[in-house]
Amino acid sequence: MQDIAAKLKIIDERIKEAAEACGRKRDDVLLCAVSKTRTPEEINIAIDAGVTDIGENKVQEIMDKFDAVKPVRWHMIGHLQTNKVKYIIDKVAMIHSVDSFKLAAEIDKRAGSKGIVMDILLQVNSAQEESKFGISLDETESLIKEILEKCENVRIRGLMCVAPKADDPQDIKIYFSQVKEQYDRFGRIEHERLDFKYLSMGMSHDFPVAIEAGSNLVRVGSAIFGERDYSKQK
Ligand SMILES: *Cc1c(COP(=O)(O)O)cnc(C)c1O
Asked: Is 39 a pocket residue for ligand 1 (Cβ < 6 Å)?
């Protein structure tokens, strides 16, 4: 367990290297430590070691751990069913996985009833993998427009992407680059509820390549906490 802090240090250094290699700084890239299947104790060790942002992919895990984890920014990074939005609306700082108007509308409604504005990212499936959630590159513009027109209680902060698995992450850099292009393009829209700040791309096996392609928010789990044992996930 103590080696969570040691692993974090290594990840931190690798983020710094990748950022500096493309003329950016360590602080230009936010690290979201992904704690699925991990206990509150393990998460608190990471927080004590400097982690400010925690990502979970299941609503149930956020609810189970929320009270036992020290104050931190929570990110919902996994597929979210509309009927579960209500459970996390007052717990998370940002929802990365918005991939339909229906989901955005539910977040809007629930945020409105709490008197808050929820930050969201649109999940783009640039490789068009059948097995992955997310909108296609082509759908991004129309979804942004519809959300800006109809959802008053959400703010679109950027885009998120989960790339296909690859033995050599350089092979999938194109999928990150395509999302980065859209991020730059739509980020120029002037609107009070569109304020692009986050391009969420990169996981344990591919975050340096994602940073090279322009990511400024990496979601790293197993490289910090160790390999996951899914028998522990409810
Ligand atoms: C699990 C998960 C991650 C982190 O994956 P690792 O390979 O453990 O770094 C990142 N993003 C999403 C959406 C995830 O579900």
From this structure: no
